[in-house]
Design a protein that fits this description.
The chain is α/β, with parallel strands linked by helices. The chain contains 5 helices and 5 strands; from the N terminus they run βαβαβαβαβα. Strands 2-1-3-4-5 form a 5-stranded parallel beta sheet, sandwiched between helices. Strand 4, helix 4 and strand 5 form a beta-alpha-beta unit. The longest helix is centred in the middle third of the chain and has 14 residues. Keywords: Cobalamin, Cobalt, Isomerase, Metal-binding. This is Methylmalonyl-CoA mutase. Its cofactor is adenosylcob(III)alamin.
């Protein structure tokens, strides 16, 4: 039997709002994914360490604080340093003009508010490397 897709849902930084992260975590679980949720206020180091320990296929970061251009590059740097083969996606309140930069550092896709959860679920299914 194939192993379920393992997704780490992470909330980097001091952002205290996790409703969106919980909604996506539940949607992923309902689709048969194995979900590890980090909880609030995680450092990039915490996120990557958890990804390694849990042997995840995907890291889904959610942010609303506006610190994505600072926190996401650090996560990507640590992923490269640790030679992780993992799909990285992001969601939350991220201005359109910041998305090209985030993709240029290795974030595969950015989902903005209002994206149907099915779009995110399907994206992970189609893009995760097993």
């Amino acid at each position: 039997m194939d192993r379920k897709i393992r997704v780490l849902v992470a909330k980097p930084g001091l952002d205290g709002h996790d409703r969106g992260a919980k909604v996506i975590a539940r949607a992923l679980m309902e689709e048969g994914f194995e979900v590890i949720y980090t909880g609030l206020r995680q450092t990039p180091e915490d996120i990557v360490e958890t990804a390694i320990q849990e042997d995840v296929d995907c890291i889904a970061m959610s942010i609303l604080s506006g610190a994505h251009n600072y926190l996401f590059p650090r996560v990507m740097e640590l992923i490269k340093e640790n030679e992780l083969e993992v799909l990285v996606i992001a969601g939350g309140v991220i201005p359109e003009e910041d998305i090209p930069f985030l993709k240029s550092i290795g974030i595969s896709e950015v989902f903005t508010p209002g994206t149907p959860t099915k779009v995110t679920v399907d994206y992970i299914k189609q893009n995760v490397k097993r």
